């Protein structure tokens, strides 16, 4: 430990300039002979672990304070949007803000507490693109476990070098700018760690942080403790008159409506997934996820129009 304790660790903001000690990597086969004889982990000092995490996190906060695209909510629609954008535009900086510690929203189970996930055709195209296997049942397909869909989608999204997921972080407000004609444009998001957001009533003065971006995609789901956040804020800031309120369940009409209505609801804010049902008074679909994937595909297309202009 003295070697670890005495090693000079220069403080520097640049992740790449961080000192790295050489410790040869081994294969698992090489390790197999060593459990009883000479097995040790490479040495570490606690501050190295702290710095390895905080340096990267604060570097990301610094880097993504100016993003090209912010996606609010990492449920099935938000992650599908991120996947399409990450694939199409490796040159754009994309921040995903997810209030929960665990990304994925409601897509870890297929419905009630059942495992399988149903997608109506033609959303099987999204699964094929993603490489998720399914059973073909004619008009719809079934993934054997919703978690296979969500974990595959998540792993692909997180692998894009131009996408950063800030989880356990809530969007608390929207940044706005006034155009010369007096209309408003959404120009970014106001964030806080979710645990802080949850304590504004019992702790004073916990001001938020911000991310500027020319376009924000909101996919925060239907109304609930967290859901429909951005569109509810549009009402309170008088950018839309009122919410239509999500209607009862009708699978056939609901899925078509969500995809069809995925759009830029006010300048700078594209809305996708079930958050849209609150804007337009559309039905819910219950446990069929095709509209979430294809709303994500369409939301990505809407966003890219901004950069193609
Ligand atoms: O934690 C939320 C979830 O992961 C996150 N979120 C909500 N408010 C947020 C905020 N800041 C940051 N202010 C926030 N994150 O948004 C995510 C929404 O995921 P979801 O799975 O609830 O929504 P979705 O539209 O992607 O998928 C909806 C799935 C549904 S609901 C439904 C029905 O009720 O009939 N049917 C389907 C398929």
UniProtKB/TrEMBL annotation:
Keyword Cytoplasm among record annotations: yes
InterPro entries: FAD/NAD-bd_sf, Sti35, Thi4_fam
GO biological process: thiamine biosynthetic process; thiazole biosynthetic process
Modified residues (2,3-didehydroalanine (Cys)): 205
Cofactor: Fe cation
Name of the top EC class for this enzyme: transferase
Positions annotated to bind substrate: 77, 98-99, 106, 171, 207, 222, 274, 284-286
Catalytic reaction list: [ADP-thiazole synthase]-L-cysteine + glycine + NAD(+) = [ADP-thiazole synthase]-dehydroalanine + ADP-5-ethyl-4-methylthiazole-2-carboxylate + nicotinamide + 3 H2O + 2 H(+)
Gene Ontology, cellular component aspect: cytosol; nucleus
Keywords of this entry: Cytoplasm, Iron, Metal-binding, NAD, Nucleus, Thiamine biosynthesis, Transferase
Protein location: Cytoplasm; Nucleus
Pfam families linked to this entry: Thi4
Free-text comment on the cofactor: Binds 1 Fe cation per subunit.
Predominant subcellular localization, coarse grouping: cytoplasm
Domain of life: Eukaryota
Enzyme Commission number(s): 2.4.2.60
Function: Involved in biosynthesis of the thiamine precursor thiazole. Catalyzes the conversion of NAD and glycine to adenosine diphosphate 5-(2-hydroxyethyl)-4-methylthiazole-2-carboxylic acid (ADT), an adenylated thiazole intermediate. The reaction includes an iron-dependent sulfide transfer from a conserved cysteine residue of the protein to a thiazole intermediate. The enzyme can only undergo a single turnover, which suggests it is a suicide enzyme. May have additional roles in adaptation to various stress conditions and in DNA damage tolerance.
NCBIfam families assigned to the protein according to its UniProt record, in alphabetical order: sulfide-dependent adenosine diphosphate thiazole synthase (TIGR00292)
Assembly and oligomerization: Homooctamer.
Protein's UniProt name: Thiamine thiazole synthase
Organism: Glarea lozoyensis (strain ATCC 20868 / MF5171)
